[in-house]
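Quick one: structure for this chain?
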Amino acid sequence: MRVGDLARSRAFYEDLLGLDAAPRPDLGFPGAWYALGESQLHLIQQAKIFDDIDPTDPHVALEVEDLGAVRRSLDAKGIPYRDFGGGQLWIVDPDGNVVELCERS
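Got it. Here's what it folds into:
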């Protein structure tokens, strides 16, 4: 979720709701991750980066077994995606919602 004031949002999610912070790599912009069972909540303090598929937009992340097979399928079907060469890529659904597809590392 995109937030305007990270400190204020951290106080809300950590102090008020009691969420536990999860490890977050340095992504080049401020943010915080929280563990939610086997899922996570990601807060991002960043303006929109891309006009089309933007990984910093609110999105759902789905785990796939073989990201290489997903890439090949998307390419064969002509479906655009954002890929930084790591263990995940992003697509948009028919209504413009961003979907992250990630492979368990």
